[in-house]
Amino acid sequence: MWEAVAAEVVKAMAVAALGGVKQLVSHKLEQRRTATDVVAILGDKARAVTAIAELLATDREFADQIESLLPRSKGTGSSSDFPASAAPFVDRETERALVAGPGARLVTGPRGAGKTALLSRLATDLRPHLPKQIYVDLADYRSGSLVRRTEVAARVVRALDVGNDLTATGTPQLWEQYRSVTARHRFLLALDNAEAATDLHGLIPPSPHSVVLVTAIKAGDDLRMEFPAPPIEVGRLAPQDALALLSHLSHPNVVAAEPIAAQELVDLCDHMPFAVRLAAVRVARRMQRGPGAVASVLEGFRATGKLGGEDVIAAAFEESFAELTPDAAELCRLLAAHPGPDFTAAGAAAVFGRSPDDALDELVDAGFVAHTDTSRQRLYNLIREGARRRGSAEVAVERALEFHCDQAVAADLHNGTDRLRLYTPRPGAESRANFEGLKPLDWVEAARETYGALAREAYLRERDVELGQICGSLEVLMLNRGYHRLFADINNWGIRGARRLGDRPLLTRVLSQQGRTHLLMHEFTTAKPFLDEALTLARELALPGLLSSVLEFCGRFREEEARQHPQQTPGLMAEAVTLLDEAIRIDRAAGPEAARSLGIHTRMLANVLVGLGRWDQVFALLGESEQHTADDRNRSRILLVKAKAETGLGSFDAAADTLGQAWQLANTSGATQYAAEFDAAFATLAEARGDLPAALDAWRRAWQVYFAAGHPRQAEFAAKFSAVEERIRGRR
């Protein structure tokens, strides 16, 4: 496990700004090897990794020093994803004591034993030492017998907050990023509901400082081989703790009133926490009818004829479910079919078809619903499985799809009505939307994982119109908040749906969105075929607004390609100018209806011309762009280009003032994905003014964002601040 960290140390030593890492490693190696050996070791990557891994494993002080020196993301992680622990939490002191230090442990036990509750309790125990905490229910990512592990990896990377807009989209790049990011962090990762070792391949972080907890019902040979330590087995509660749980959740005097029946009841429940909880709920209800509540529930259990483990839990669920009111039972069945990991009260109302308040309260009281620190809720996985066994509820998927489409469309329209939209919303989407007190885009962002699940469900059900709504309306989320990989996954379904639907304008739009998404991730090989097909279709369709948009994306593609291929820069930049100039001519001819596009495209062409030093054209285009731009996000982009031009002309004070205004507008608009680009502009300005220390800090900040995300531009920015560092050394 130390080899992964050692590999990161070797990478860090190659960066001049991290000279402290190389100095520390050299010093430690010199204590054990000759100077000649140290030089030879550091000159051979494989030998260096082996030697550093040995140091990390045997010298804890060195390991701690290295951890403090390696670059980190700015993320803090979160424990809000952990299901709320059942109250009271009883017993399990032995199991908790087994998680005493870093490493990966397998937690096993039958359904209803309290494995998830134990995870939540351990998260609380470990929070002082491991404040970064991530919980993933693998059941939410399971398709048949397979776990969609790339989605799990992406969720972990996003949870570590390395930059949502920079998460890699290609599978090999994602796994490289996952290994790199998790190796550098100290955190708790809980992977709930594993079924086989194949569920976990690649997901166990290489960080020797972290704690990884994996739960499974059964510890098969394949799972045992993955974990060197014996499994932590979660089984029955101690008899006194099972009685205490029954008493706490039903009535303080219930055990004293019926001690024999109470003991027999928890025995029949096999002392399993979930079964005891459900029994306690029924006892509490039966107490309203008079004495003998425990005996009455006990008699019902005996009548089922099922004893022990999983059968008892199933029987307990069925009986508890049967005692729900018809409304609560129907809501439970509908929510069990709701796509995605969670829902809100408004989402519950949508699938229920009416107000769910009383029925949802009943499910909460019955212990069926797990709460998080947000307004989103989820059914416990066991409850969801039990409800699904009572029959399918396809109507829930249809209703959830329509509701979430309306929500996304309304949020998109709230962000402005002048953006190019080729999807067809249902009439009245805005009037039906309910954002539950949140800003529209914040609500959609919180539901992003549900939208990912809905895109797949929409395609499988041939709801291609709604799939087009999801792809078209969620573009505004990607533009303002990032989540490029999630957006790319959704667009993959959207492209297939648009082809099946035969809607060529919609297909062109989604293809171009997909090309731009991969372009923003610098995945040029992946982006190119999408953009090429989109441009061919756009020219055939002769829809001016659509052609202008596709030309924009293709122009941006050529501009970014030029960065990667310096020897081809003049030709590629000339192509970018030609494509953007054609888009601008189309916008001007279209008149007021293309004002927004004209504002964007003139600014983009001005940015290209900054690199070519064509200053008069730059400022003329920016002036035209300002006339046609109203929103803060795009106004900040105009000012950023203007500041670059002012820097190039040597107007440093003006550039500094313009950059400050641009940064303030970007923050006001909530556009969080431009931090590295602003740092690069600040660095360029500081370097031009001769303020090399400020330039070094800004280049380092920009590089750290890209490095933490495994983004291809990290090498470009590393070279920038290394060059500045060399200049600083030359002054001394």
Description:
The protein has 732 residues and is mainly alpha-helical. It contains 38 helices and 9 strands. The strands form 3 sheets. It has a 5-stranded parallel β-sheet with strand order 2-5-6-1-7, with helices on both faces. Strands 3-4 form a two-stranded antiparallel sheet. The chain is globular and about 90 Å long.
Our count of helices gives 38
Question: Radius of gyration from the CA trace?
Answer: 29 Å
Mean pLDDT comes to 84
Strand content: under 5%
What is the helical fraction, as a range of percent? 55-70%
Q: What is the terminal separation in angstroms?
A: 41 Å
Low-confidence spans: 73-80, 305-310
Question: What does the main sheet amount to?
Answer: 5 strands, parallel
Number of strands: 9
Please state how the strands of the largest beta sheet are arranged side by side: 2-5-6-1-7
Using the alpha-carbon principal axes, give the shape.
globular
The secondary structure category is mainly alpha
Explain the layout of strands and helices.
Layout: H1 2-13, H2 19-30, H3 35-42, H4 45-58, H5 60-69, H6 93-98, E1 103-108, H7 115-126, E2 133-137, E3 142-143, E4 146-147, H8 149-159, H9 171-183, E5 188-194, E6 211-216, H10 221-226, E7 232-233, H11 239-250, H12 254-257, H13 259-268, H14 273-286, H15 293-304, H16 309-322, H17 326-336, H18 345-352, H19 357-365, E8 369-371, E9 377-379, H20 381-389, H21 394-414, H22 429-432, H23 440-446, H24 448-460, H25 464-473, H26 475-481, H27 484-501, H28 504-520, H29 524-541, H30 544-564, H31 569-590, H32 595-612, H33 615-627, H34 632-648, H35 652-669, H36 675-689, H37 692-709, H38 714-731
Parallel strand pairs: 1-6, 1-7, 2-5, 5-6
Antiparallel strand pairs: 3-4, 8-9
